[in-house]
């Protein structure tokens, strides 16, 4: 992209380092920022593992992978001063409105063309309201794992500038993704539909309708889903799924009220793949 050369990603967790990886692979100079000392460096190690795995599977050439990794930098704060211009900023911090507002509110830079929030359910208008340039703020909802999943949900709020939406769409395509544009609404399109399906699958398991394996197989073989709703919940993280469900229940209605079984799993620390057990063992 001729008009975008530099990208800063804030938050070096699963989503953040995935966004940094696709940005570097697309040819951008990427700085991955995390306030926790060593977190960004550890995330770069995971990116190197992902790139090496891609080379082994023939998804990316060895030289291309090495060049992409060479475009990555780790930091504990957003670059500043001479040479610190940033074309695009993407925050990928935890799904907490106050935290996202504080991050976005601290990113007032006249040269920055786009500020994007990787949120799966929060109000983008509320996040943008904290910015000195709210018209340049959009939602860019990536999916996990970022380097594999093809969808990016571009979320537009009432005060957004059309140029920012168009740039977000072009950026997603440069990352090798398929963008969809949705209006700012609780859960957008993907989370609203996906969470509802996942919650009903949990209710079915809770009621003894079928095993977790058979519920997921029904959706994979009967409806062509690449992954069943319970397995997907384990990948996303059951704590994340619970937080989103609680938010949507408040904003939309009781159909999103979290099932007892989901609350129990989270209370027991069985959060899915990241803890080794959720609805399945990993």
Give a written overview of the molecule.
There is one protein chain. This protein has an eight-stranded mixed β-sheet with strand order 3-2-1-4-5-6-7-8, sandwiched between helices. The protein has 282 residues and is α/β, with parallel strands linked by helices. It folds into two domains: 6-183, NAD(P)-binding Rossmann-like Domain (Rossmann fold), CATH 3.40.50; 192-273, Orthogonal Bundle (N-(1-d-carboxylethyl)-l-norvaline Dehydrogenase, domain 2), CATH 1.10.1040. The N and C termini lie far apart (40 Å). 44% of the residues lie in helices and 14% in strands. The model has no long low-confidence stretch (mean pLDDT 94).
Give structural attributes.
282 residues, alpha/beta, Rossmann fold, N-(1-d-carboxylethyl)-l-norvaline Dehydrogenase, domain 2, globular
Quaternary status of these chains? single chain
Choose one word for the global shape. Answer: globular
Note the main sheet: 8 strands, mixed
Under the CATH scheme, which class of the largest domain?
Answer: Alpha Beta
- Strand coverage percent: 5-15%
Straight-line N-to-C gap: 40 Å
* CATH-level-2 architecture of the largest domain: 3-Layer(aba) Sandwich
Overall number of domains: 2
Short description:
This protein has 11 helices and 8 strands. It has 282 residues and is α/β, with parallel strands linked by helices. It has 2 domains: 6-183, NAD(P)-binding Rossmann-like Domain (Rossmann fold, 3-Layer(aba) Sandwich); 192-273, N-(1-d-carboxylethyl)-l-norvaline Dehydrogenase, domain 2 (Orthogonal Bundle), CATH 1.10.1040.10.
